[in-house]
Amino acid sequence: MMRKTMLGALALSLGLSACTTSPLGRSQLSLFDSSEIDQQGQKAFDEYRKSHKQATGRDGQYVTCIADAIIKTLPEGQGPSKWTVGVYQDEEPNAFALPGGYVVINTGLMKVAKNQDQIATVVGHEMAHVLANHANERTSTQSLTSTGLGVVQSVTGNNALAQLLGAGAQYGVLLPYSRRQESEADLLGLDLMARAGFDPQASIALWQNMASAGGGQPPEWASTHPNSGERSEALKGRMQSALKLSEEARAAGHTPNCGNIKS
Fold it and tell me: What global pTM score does this model have?
């Protein structure tokens, strides 16, 4: 009993001493060094590439153009020094981000997002996960809510982080962010794409398309996400400020023209 109490107190003190703030001002728990998280993200991405074929040609160039437009407008020093954004062969209408600046778009999503602005919504959302350090927060929370021994292992430098973020478990650990994180990435991503000169109103249409693709229900991969209606309402609440950002961006010369998705 005393051991459990001591471990619980340690977990609490670690949590209180490792609080950071998200870009939207939300308190976050970050127990791990960002460089460690990024290294594990790279390992997970390398593992993913071994089993998934990258789409080249038109789709790849299209998404690269959109991502570059967003990256160019990020404040200096914000985010990874290098982003890796690519399209991979998978018919599931999905996308995900890994710490370290890795963003994967499935070819199946290209059939749901109908234009550059809708794709920019997705890319901005995934970049927002990275910029908001959601992987560190999720892993830290998972560590603290596991056994007290796991907490101790996590902060004493052994292989707990590798176990939590290892390439063999990346899809179960890194991808299913919480609803709170998904909602935050929606709003942050809206700002990112708007600052690059994309039309933020396309975000609403995208989630309508996603709802239709899922037969009115979110697909299995989105089970931890807010539903499309909730996402749309939250985006509408931020739309006026996003539209202003987009107008200012276009007036400053940010007018992305990546073309249309090849049907």
Answer: 0.81
